[in-house]
Amino acid sequence: MKAVVLAAGEGTRLRPxxxxxxxxxxxxxxxxxxxxxxxxxxxxxxxxFVVVVGYKxxxxxxxxxxxxxxxxxxxxxxxxxxxLAHALLQAEPHxxxxxxxxxxxxxxxGNLGDVVNRQQEDRADAAFLVEEVPMEDxxxxxxxxxxxxxxxxxxxxxxxxxxxxxxxxxxxxxxxxIFHACHLVQPSDRGEYELPDAIDLLIQSGxxxxxxxxxxxxxxxxFPEDRDRxxxxxxxxxxxxxxxxxxxxxxxx
Length: 253
Description:
Blueprint: E1 2-7, E2 27-28, E3 31-32, H1 33-43, E4 48-53, H2 57-64, E5 67-68, E6 71-77, H3 84-89, E7 99-103, E8 106-109, H4 112-122, E9 126-132, E10 142-146, E11 152-157, E12 166-174, H5 177-184, H6 195-204, E13 209-213, E14 217-220, H7 224-243
């Protein structure tokens, strides 16, 4: 399974950290954001990357070349920053089967593999991680509108008046059906082609969509203070992992 990593953003809200580099090369705990994304993806068995680049793309391409830890990297260029659906379409020529999509500016520690497993078990056209955030923060994300049974009826990108505080995180799996939906998306009021709008088209057309609750944590590094929060959180997570007991030895085959 390939992974598409969206890494074209300029990161204007992260300045001055992004004055001389793309957003995904901002370091957290001594490692660029995109490298943490790569490592997470390798942990769940990804065997190749399609990296969508844009702002200062040469810095990413020169640093990583055509492979990362033995897995091939293909680059796709988003010439204009016209939204996540538009960015995803730049990867379409390189994808011919189910794939993972991950945003290059999110730090995750959690159940990413559950999303892949659920999508494959249910043969769903999309599966993604969701989490609850403070209501005042929901308008920063793609928000899920659910019915009384907790089923997602629609998703809305960055609404002024969020219908809930259940939001999509930056990790998804898709079949190639998402590309057709992205081609149908119309520009939003912000003038961008929004990925949640494409996912909503899949929902409204009756496609199978799975939402899995995040078991763990993630930080969307959009502002310098988000980077600082991730810096504080990562050493705690690494310490917790190191302190977990080793499984007991067994003589069973």
